[in-house]
Amino acid sequence: MTHSDDVTHLAECSACRQRYAANVVPFDPAARRNREHEFTSVAARLERERDESSDMVARYLRDTPTDEWSRLAEMPDLRNNAALEQMSEEVRRRLHRKPREALAIANLSASIAESLAPSQYPSVVLAQLRGTAWKDRASTLRYLARYDEALEAADRGEEAVAPFAALEHDRAVIRLVKGLIFSHTERFDEALSIFENCRQVFREHDDQRRYVQAGIAQGIVLYDTARYADALHLFRDVLHDAIAADDLESQARIHNNLGYCATHLSDFVQANIHFSEAIAKFTDLGYSTEVPRTQRGAGLVLIGRGQISKGLKYLYDARRDFTAVGMTEEAGLCALRIAEVLVERGDDSEARALTQAVIEEFTSFGFDDRAIAAIVRLRDSIDVDGATVESVRTVHDFIEGLRIADQNSY
Q1: What CA–CA distance (Å, rounded) separates 57 from 102?
Q2: Does residue 22 lie in a domain region?
Q3: I need a labelling partner for 294 at 20 to 30 A (CA). Which of 19, 24, 77, 241 fits?
Q4: What is the pLDDT of residues 20-51, one digit of tens each?
Q5: How many structural domains is the chain composed of?
């Protein structure tokens, strides 16, 4: 049975209406009929709000300076279900491109949801609105690696929906985010338990997309805890589900994960097949940044497992494709990874040529002078007395650190 994300489902599904009503009122046929009528009326009202508020949030965000978005919480036009739905969509759209903007919108949404009058909607609708808003805030904070705050937001969201059996699916969506936070903070047993529970709920509610997502998350935890064979088997099962759902993006990510698992299990033929499938599917999707990231990851893992030639080919391809999509910093960092291998193999001339190319690229794009100076020193050390793998890696990590610091500055 398919559940929507709002009270419309309750208006249409007698089983869930009875399940919800049984938790809040004694059995009374007349009261039950009134409650069913209430749900139907509310569902119609929510649809009217959506029709009347199309693109309202996008217009407000566009016409208001970013640092003033918080004051939009007082705008009457935005204090309703339709506007909060639009905010959730804006968070989703911006999360991977502009995460700080996504967080600002999620904060706005949580502020509005928490301050709605109890009389504005039935309690189950208010709970769902608040749960979604806190879930969005938890997702953005997790993306920004602010895990303590993310967990607090996820807890707030779960507390909002927990009293309502009819919102079991909403609670599972929030708990999926919570599980991801646990996996990032190495609370692996708790994460696995949550993902198992979420998969069961998503299967019961015929939510195939999230069922696959939870399976991927569970497999990643198994991989991170070095249970490579278990992760491989799970990813294979989830791949069948993703194919059945015609979910091409999940298929690409699963193939990527299968490639990592196969590499650690020394099945390099299968690893190469899976990495190639992932790259092909990301290419078909037009995910121009995912292709070189997959190539880079494949290259590093293969090199780490002693497959130097195959690994270098992936790294060179990644550098080429990072350059093609204008990701100059990523291309430069990839070149330094290649230089590590070249220095270890004694190919100083090629390593020097790569570092010189990175200097020119970074200079042309006006990158941080400290990064350029570090690479110049590396190039000179290759010329004078030969650089070591450790010195190349130190420069790479220094530049990576500068980038992370810049991304997390406010």
Answers
A1: 13
A2: yes
A3: 241
A4: 444 444 545 555 455 555 556 666 666 766 66
A5: 2
